[in-house]
TrEMBL record:
PROSITE patterns: GATASE_TYPE_1 (PS51273)
Domain Chorismate-utilising enzyme C-terminal: 247-499
EC number(s) stated in the UniProt entry for this protein: 4.1.3.27
Name the record gives this protein: Anthranilate synthase
Catalytic activity: chorismate + L-glutamine = anthranilate + pyruvate + L-glutamate + H(+)
Source organism per UniProt: Bradyrhizobium arachidis
Classification via Gene3D superfamilies: 3.40.50.880, Anthranilate synthase
Keywords annotated in UniProt: Amino-acid biosynthesis, Aromatic amino acid biosynthesis, Glutamine amidotransferase, Lyase, Tryptophan biosynthesis
Residue intervals passing through the bilayer: none
Pathway participation: Amino-acid biosynthesis; L-tryptophan biosynthesis; L-tryptophan from chorismate: step 1/5
Keyword Cell inner membrane: no
Phylogenetic classification of the source organism: Bacteria, Pseudomonadati, Pseudomonadota, Alphaproteobacteria, Hyphomicrobiales
Keyword set includes Chloroplast: no
Length: 721
C-alpha cells in the first residue's frame, strides 16, 4: 500500500487533466479494524471492492487492506459493447464530465442520458508493427481514455477498481472463439469510488478518504453516497464439474502430443467445479483470509448478483508508470504435515526438473512480454525460484522487472502480458487457442486480472486464480495445471485438486489445518533489423537483445514479411522461433525475398530449421522434446560463434532439428550437443546462419552467450564470398 496516504493533509483540492475539480478529505484513525469488518459485511448487499494482502515478502508484498462500498460510477463491458452508469445522484456529475471529455476515436456513444453513457468500440485491425499491439483499438482504449480524463498526480489511491475477464485477449489477438458465451458474461466491471478505507494491519493505522467532484457548476457535495441494494441470492442449486472423470487427463495427453510435434512447449488447461453455497460472500472471504492468506485477496460485489472471492497468490502486473513488475509462479507441491515434512517437500520441489523447466518457460515468456514495451537491457530477474509459502501449498516464484520505454504506460504493461503464461502456456498464441479448443467451458473471470488502475498512472493487479465466483447460490472454482511433455496426466489432475482445496475448505466450513547486468558492444549501432514473428512467445525478448547492441528493430508477424521486405532497406533479417514447421509460415518465400536483396539472414530455432530445409536439408524429430531445457553445446568455430568458449550452456525449446545425415554441402555445423544434434549452422558463401537454441533465454545468460551471438549476427557478411 502507498504509505504516503498516512501523511496526507486533512483536506486537498486539485483538478484532473480533464478539468474535473476534486476535493479530498482525509480522516486518520488507529485501532479501527472493526471498520474493515463492517465494510466487508456491507459488500454482501452493496456494490464495492475490498483488496486485501495477508502476506509479507520483503521487496515484494506487504500486508494491507483497501476498499469501498457504494461507488458512484460503474464501467461495464461485454465484447465491444460498453456502458458507463451512475449508481447514485453523485455519479451523474461524473457522467456529465465524461460525456464532455471522452475523446477516443474508436468509442461510439449511441446512448447519452443524465445517468448513462452506452455504445460500442470500433475494434481496430491488428497492427503491422508488434510494438503497437497494446494500442490496438479495444474496450481497453476506453479505459485509457477514462484514466486520462481523471489523471492527476495528487492522489496515489483513487482509480478504477474491479475485474478484467480472460476474454479481453480476444480483442488484442485474433484468436478463434470455439464455445458460446453465456448472456450474463461480462468482460470488465470497474468502479470509481468516492470513499476509500485504507488499513495497515502491521501498525493498526488507517485512513478514510472521502471525495467530492465538481464539473461545470454541478457538485457532489452534500449528495447522499448510498446506492441501491445488490444482494447475494441463495437460490437452491445443484453442483457440477465441467469434466467427467478421466477427461482432464485425456486433455493432458492431447497436449503432450502437441508438445511432441513442437506445436506447444507448455499448456495450462483448466477445469471447473461448482457447489451450492449457503454462506455469504463476506463469510467465505473472511474464512479464506484466515485459511489461506495471500497477496491478492479480494472480495468484489460486481452487481447483478455476481461476486468474486479471491485468494490469488500471483501478481499479474504492478507498475508505477515507469517500472514494471511481475512474479511468475510455476512449480507447486503440497505442504507437509509438519515442519520436517515441509522441508522435504521444499527439497523435492527445488530438485524437480519438471518444475524448473516450467518456470524457465514461464519467465522466458514473461521477459518477452516485457520486451515489447520496455527499455532494452532493463529487464532483470530480481529473484529466481524463490519459495513462497501458503496454507496448503509451496510455490516456486521468480520476480521480474523492466523499465517502460518512452511512449508506453502502465496499461501497455498490463496488455503486453495478457494473459500470463502461467495460466495459458507457450508459445502463448497457440497455447491460448489450445485452451479455447479443449477446455469444456469459457473461463469468464478466471486467468484475467483483479485490482486497481490508478489515476496517477500506476497499476496493481493480481492474476485471477484461486478465485471463487459466487452467483445465485452457486460457487464456482476453476483451477489449472501447467503441463509439459514430461507431465503425468493423473498427477496434473491431482494438482488441480490440491490447488482448489483451500477454496473448498472456505466453502464447506472444513476446519483449518495448523499451520545479471550486461554491457554489450554497440555492434548493431545504426543497423535496421526486420524481425519476423512466427506466432512466437519469445520474439520481443529477442528484439530486446538486438536493441541492446544498438540496432533499430521492427517486429512484424509473418503475414507482413514480404511486404515489409519491399518497403525499405534493411541490414539484417531475423527469422524468429515459433511452433509447428517452417511451411506453416511460408518461410521459404521470406528467405527467397531476402537473398534476392542480398540481405543477411539470421534464424533462431524454427528459423534455423527453415534455413536447413531451404538449402536441401531434412528435419528430424527428437525422441524427447527439449522444451525449457538447458544443454551443454560444443562450439566448433564460425562467424556466428566467434569469441565463445569451446563449451557453452544454452536454452532449448524445440522438437524438430536439421538432420546431420541430410546436411547440405553448402552449410557448416558450427555447434552441436553432446549427442550430435546440430545447434548452429552457417552457409559457406552466403551471409546466412542460425542457431537451434534460444540466445535470448535466461538459460543462455551465462557468460553473455546470447548477447555475443546477437552481436555476431551483424558480422555474417564478413568473410563470405
Amino acid at each position: 500500500m502507498n504509505r504516503i496516504v498516512f501523511a496526507l493533509p486533512a483536506r486537498s483540492d486539485y483538478v484532473t487533466r480533464g478539468g474535473l475539480a476534486i476535493t479530498r478529505v482525509a480522516e486518520q484513525f488507529t485501532g479501527g479494524a472493526n471498520r474493515l469488518d463492517d465494510l466487508i459485511n456491507l459488500l454482501d448487499r452493496r456494490r464495492g471492492v475490498v483488496l486485501s494482502s495477508g502476506t509479507t515478502v520483503p521487496g515484494r508484498y506487504e500486508s494491507f487492506d483497501l476498499g469501498f462500498s457504494d461507488p458512484p460510477l460503474k464501467l461495464e463491458t461485454s465484447g465491444v459493447d460498453f456502458k458507463l452508469e451512475a449508481l447514485n445522484e453523485r455519479g451523474q456529475v461524473l457522467i456529465a464530465f465524461l460525456a464532455d471529455v471522452l475523446r477516443e476515436p474508436c468509442v461510439v456513444i449511441s446512448e447519452k442520458t443524465a445517468t448513462r453513457l452506452a455504445g460500442h468500440i470500433i475494434r481496430g485491425d491488428a497492427p503491422v508493427e508488434e510494438d503497437q499491439r497494446t494500442r490496438r483499438a479495444s474496450v481497453m482504449s476506453m479505459v485509457r481514455d477514462i484514466i486520462a480524463a481523471f489523471s492527476a498526480n495528487d492522489d496515489g489511491l483513487l482509480g478504477l477498481f474491479g475485474a478484467f475477464a480472460y476474454d479481453l485477449v480476444f480483442q488484442i489477438e485474433d484468436l478463434v472463439q470455439k464455445r458460446p458465451r453465456e448472456a450474463d458474461q461480462r468482460d470488465i466491471v470497474l468502479y470509481v469510488p468516492d470513499r476509500l478505507l485504507a488499513y495497515d494491519r502491521a501498525t493498526g493505522r488507517g485512513v478514510v478518504l472521502t471525495y467530492d467532484f465538481a464539473w461545470k457548476g454541478k457538485s457532489t457535495e452534500g449528495l447522499p453516497r448510498e446506492t441501491a441494494e445488490s444482494p447475494y441470492l441463495k437460490t437452491p442449486r445443484q453442483g457440477f464439474a465441467d469434466h467427467a472423470p478421466g477427461e482432464y487427463q485425456a486433455t493432458v495427453e492431447t497436449a503432450r502430443a502437441a508438445f511432441a510435434r513442437g506445436d506447444l512447449f507448455e499448456a495450462v488447461p483448466g477445469q471447473l467445479f461448482a457447489e451450492p453455497c449457503d454462506r455469504s460472500p463476506a463469510e467465505v472471504f473472511q474464512r479464506l483470509c484466515v485459511i489461506n492468506p495471500s497477496p491478492y485477496g479480494a472480495l468484489m460485489n460486481l452487481g447483478e448478483g455476481e461476486f468474486l472471492v479471491s485468494a490469488s497468490p500471483e501478481m499479474f502486473v504492478r507498475s508505477d508508470g515507469r517500472r514494471v513488475e511481475t512474479c511468475p509462479i510455476s512449480g507447486t507441491i503440497a505442504r507437509g504435515t509438519d515442519a520436517i515434512g515441509d522441508a522435504e517437500q521444499i527439497r523435492q520441489l527445488l530438485n524437480s526438473e519438471k518444475d524448473e523447466f516450467e518456470l524457465n518457460m514461464c519467465t522466458d515468456v514473461d521477459r518477452n512480454d516485457k520486451a515489447r514495451v520496455c527499455v532494452p537491457g532493463t529487464i532483470k530477474v530480481l529473484a529466481r525460484r524463490q519459495i513462497e509459502t501458503y496454507s496448503k501449498l509451496f510455490h516456486t516464484v521468480d520476480h521480474v522487472e523492466g523499465m517502460l520505454r518512452p511512449g508506453f504506460d502502465a496499461l501497455d504493461a498490463f496488455l503486453t502480458h495478457a494473459w500470463a503464461v502461467t495460466v495459458t502456456g507457450a508459445p502463448k498464441l497457440w497455447a491460448m487457442q489450445f485452451v479455447e479448443d479443449h477446455e469444456r467451458s469459457p473461463r469468464r473471470w478466471y486467468a484475467g486480472a483483479i485490482g486497481a488502475v490508478n489515476f496517477d498512472g500506476s497499476i496493481n493487479t493480481g492474476l485471477t486464480i484461486r478465485t471463487i465466483r459466487m452467483k445465485d447460490g452457486l460457487a464456482e472454482v476453476r483451477v489449472g495445471a501447467t503441463c509439459l511433455f514430461d507431465s503425468d496426466p493423473a498427477a496434473e489432475d491431482r494438482e488441480c485438486q490440491v490447488k482448489a482445496a483451500a477454496l473448498f475448505q472456505a466453502l464447506r466450513g472444513d476446519p483449518p489445518k495448523p499451520l545479471s547486468t550486461f554491457a554489450p558492444d554497440a555492434t548493431g549501432s545504426g543497423k535496421q533489423v526486420l524481425l519476423i514473428d512466427h506466432d512466437d512467445s519469445f520474439v520481443h525478448m529477442l528484439a530486446d537483445y538486438f536493441r541492446q547492441v544498438g540496432a533499430e528493430v521492427t517486429v512484424v508477424r509473418y503475414v507482413h514479411a514480404l511486404d515489409m521486405l519491399k518497403r525499405k532497406r534493411w541490414d539484417l533479417l531475423v527469422l524468429s522461433p515459433g511452433p509447428g514447421r517452417p511451411e506453416d509460415f511460408g518461410i521459404k518465400k521470406t528467405i527467397d525475398a531476402a537473398l534476392e536483396k542480398q540481405l543477411p539472414v539470421f534464424g533462431v530455432c524454427l528459423g534455423v530449421q527453415a534455413i536447413g530445409e531451404y538449402f536441401g536439408g531434412e528435419l528430424g524429430q527428437l525422441t524427447h522434446p527439449a522444451h525449457g531445457r538447458p544443454s551443454r553445446v560444443q562450439v566448433r568455430g564460425g562467424r556466428l560463434m566467434r569469441n565463445l568458449p569451446n563449451e557453452i550452456v544454452i536454452g532449448r525449446y524445440h522438437s524438430l532439428f536439421v538432420e546431420r545425415d541430410s546436411m547440405p554441402e553448402v552449410l557448416s555445423v558450427t555447434a552441436s550437443t553432446e549427442d550430435g544434434v546440430a545447434m548452429a549452422l552457417e552457409h559457406k558463401t552466403l551471409p546466412v546462419a542460425g542457431v537451434q537454441f534460444h540466445p535470448e533465454s535466461l538459460m543462455s545468460l551465462g557468460n553473455e552467450v546470447g548477447l555475443k551471438i546477437v552481436e555476431n549476427a551483424f558480422r555474417l557478411d564478413a568473410g563470405t564470398n
